[in-house]
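Query structure, 263 tokens:
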């Protein structure tokens, strides 16, 4: 992770292949950038070796399922309320905010589907910017299916542990908007649907200036989101080809609340 400028407001997906490498780099991440004066937090599965090892480098080490969810299932609102409480406490203690490394194996006992996690991570991306925090979410390949990891990566703006970027990404953008970039084909559309399911209703504004390709399945995902939720969706800075294929596919009539702004 040293190649990344992990300053405040950063949200990173780290795909982990080696447990010992995780232990070493997670500790180094917590101890790095002392100039930011952030409170160092390690999350992980209760009783795990990795969480126990990071206790010496962290100001707080905990299992989020126990600390925020009372041992229950993943609930984004309760998780975010916990984040806000700890961020406020950190500032009251003299820190500038939170610096978090999370071993996402804690999710395994939280009965969270990949779709639920994708939505959670997308909304977390906006919260991290709001709280000016630094958060690294570590997903072990041995713990999660490849398609699930692909979906998790699609809702993080930064990545380590994989040579290739995800096929597409949707992440938080300024003023409550979102940014969609990369390529959305039929397999990726499933992850896009999971991400959009977490997006609040109107107005839903998505900057698609970085969208290089989207097939019919991807366009149908956006149309279905607008149609089933009854919300307005604005696709800003779209390529002319996207607007043309949208009309040719009949989505302008199927989902009339979707507006495409051609750049």
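Result returned for the query:
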């Amino acid at each position: 992770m040293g190649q990344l400028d992990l300053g405040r407001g950063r949200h990173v997906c780290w795909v982990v292949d080696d447990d010992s490498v995780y232990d070493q780099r997670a500790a180094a991440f917590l101890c790095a950038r002392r100039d930011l004066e952030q409170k160092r937090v390690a999350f992980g599965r209760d009783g795990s070796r990795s969480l126990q090892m990071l206790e010496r480098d962290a100001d707080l080490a905990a299992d989020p399922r126990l600390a925020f969810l009372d041992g229950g299932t993943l609930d984004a609102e309760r998780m975010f309320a916990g984040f806000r409480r700890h961020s406020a406490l950190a500032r009251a203690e003299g820190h500038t905010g939170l610096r978090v490394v999370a071993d996402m194996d804690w999710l395994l006992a939280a009965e969270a589907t990949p779709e639920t996690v994708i939505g959670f991570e997308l909304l977390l991306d906006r919260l991290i910017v709001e709280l000016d925090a630094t958060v690294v979410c570590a997903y072990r390949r041995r713990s999660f299916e490849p398609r699930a990891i692909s979906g998790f990566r699609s809702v993080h703006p930064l990545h380590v542990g994989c040579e290739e970027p995800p096929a597409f990404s949707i992440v938080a953008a300024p003023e409550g908007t979102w940014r969609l970039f990369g390529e959305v084909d039929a397999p990726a559309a499933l992850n896009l649907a999971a991400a959009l399911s977490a997006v609040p209703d109107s107005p839903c504004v998505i900057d698609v200036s970085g969208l290089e390709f989207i097939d019919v399945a991807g366009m149908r995902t956006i149309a279905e989101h607008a149609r089933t939720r009854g919300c307005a969706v604005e696709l800003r800075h779209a390529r002319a080809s996207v607007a043309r294929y949208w009309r040719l596919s009949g989505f302008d009539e199927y989902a009339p609340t979707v507006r495409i702004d051609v750049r």
